[in-house]
Design a protein that fits this description.
Blueprint lengths: L1 E2 L1 H13 L13 E5 L10 H5 L8 H11 L19 H10 L2 E7 L5 H13 L3 E7 L11 H18 L1
Parallel strand pairs: 1-2, 2-3, 3-4
């Protein structure tokens, strides 16, 4: 499980774990949880364009964070930033074979929501079972600021985890 940048890390660790399943025994992974995963890309999405003047988290802040985080000489269409580029088909196929489930939580007021939804659709197209929870309005990391939405998220997460056991 990971939130924001942690969601990005959880995603990439999940991809790598598909290659190491036998080496992880007796640990048995049943899925991954992506809470407002922090993804980006070179071309602006509609949700990013909509937040150009956001006083707290405009796209230029996200761009700078990626510039400081990515390997030197690459752009935001690098696989670490943009999960829709690169070759993840074998990882997704393995996730499907293993019966992993993916939980995605986001909100439609988040500037990153279009990229998040694009990843969800890509995974579903590959046959991975994805449980999505998209809250109306809100912002990136909404549950950190609003206890009522955090409690609602905990209930949904509990159901997802208990179902996966």
């Amino acid at each position: 499980m990971g939130g924001s940048a942690g969601g990005n890390i959880a995603y990439h660790l999940g991809l790598r774990a598909t290659e190491q399943v036998d080496n992880l025994l007796p640990l048995k992974i049943k899925g991954i949880i992506l809470h407002h995963p922090f993804f980006g890309g070179v071309e602006r999405t509609e949700s990013e364009s909509r937040s150009i003047n956001d006083p707290i988290f405009p796209p230029c802040v996200s761009d700078l964070m990626w510039e400081l985080s990515l390997p030197i000489g690459v752009d935001r269409d690098h696989e670490y930033c943009n999960p829709t580029v690169g070759e993840n088909s074998s990882h997704f196929e393995k996730m499907k074979q293993l019966g992993w489930r993916v939980f995605f939580a986001g909100c439609d007021g988040d500037q990153l929501i279009n990229r998040q939804i694009e990843l969800v659709k890509m995974m579903e197209k590959k046959g991975i079972q994805v449980v999505s929870r998209i809250v109306e309005g809100g912002c990136h990391g909404l549950e950190l600021f609003d206890p009522s939405t955090a409690n609602a998220l905990y209930v949904v997460l509990k159901n997802f985890v208990c179902y996966s056991i």
